[in-house]
């Protein structure tokens, strides 16, 4: 994977709306990007400490952006598999809507990494925000793709 470093003074800090309405929507529709800022990986095959090296955008900030497929716990089920070799990502709080022009275009979920196995896992300082499409955009695209920010 080619890594890109931004010039001093430039930052990649898209808003929640931009992540869903531009990046995620273009990704699920198969459209190209002019600038490759978000890596595509199977996030749950890696431990959080390994993820910074997987990002194609080397930033001075402690944030990394990834497209990752939604992995199902069971082939015909709706539960998402968020476990890694050494732990799991646990959801915290409620999903929050991402709005554009007073319409809900996506949802944002916050997850915290725990080492060990549920329910006795030990909480860490690793936090992830996961974005998914909602509404009419979800119906016209492949819903199995999300953006995760670590």
TrEMBL record:
Chief subcellular location equals nucleus
InterPro entries (alphabetical): NAC-dom, NAC_dom_sf
* Biological process annotations from GO: regulation of DNA-templated transcription
Q: How is this protein annotated for GO cellular component?
A: nucleus
The UniProt record lists the keyword Ion transport: no
Q: Name one Pfam family in it.
A: NAM
Q: Enumerate the spans annotated as NAC domain.
A: 6-150
**Record has DNA-binding as a keyword:** yes
As one GO molecular function, the record gives: DNA binding
Q: Where in the cell is it found?
A: Nucleus
Query: Which keywords are on file for this protein?
Result: DNA-binding, Nucleus, Transcription, Transcription regulation
State the protein's name.
Answer: NAC domain-containing protein
Question: What is the species of this protein?
Answer: Picea sitchensis
């Amino acid at each position: 994977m080619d890594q890109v470093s931004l010039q001093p003074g430039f930052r990649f800090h898209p808003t929640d709306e931009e992540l869903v309405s531009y990046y995620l929507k273009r990704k699920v529709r198969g459209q190209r990007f002019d600038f490759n800022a978000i890596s595509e990986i199977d996030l749950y095959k890696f431990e959080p400490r390994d993820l910074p090296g997987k990002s194609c955008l080397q930033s001075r900030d402690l944030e990394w952006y990834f497209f990752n497929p939604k992995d199902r716990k069971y082939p015909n089920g709706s539960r998402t598999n968020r476990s890694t070799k050494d732990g799991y990502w646990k959801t915290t709080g409620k999903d929050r809507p991402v709005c554009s022009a007073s319409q809900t275009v996506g949802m944002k979920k916050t997850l915290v990494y725990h080492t060990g196995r549920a329910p006795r896992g030990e909480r860490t300082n690793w936090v992830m925000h996961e974005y998914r499409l909602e509404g009419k955009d979800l119906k016209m695209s492949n819903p199995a793709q999300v953006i995760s920010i670590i």
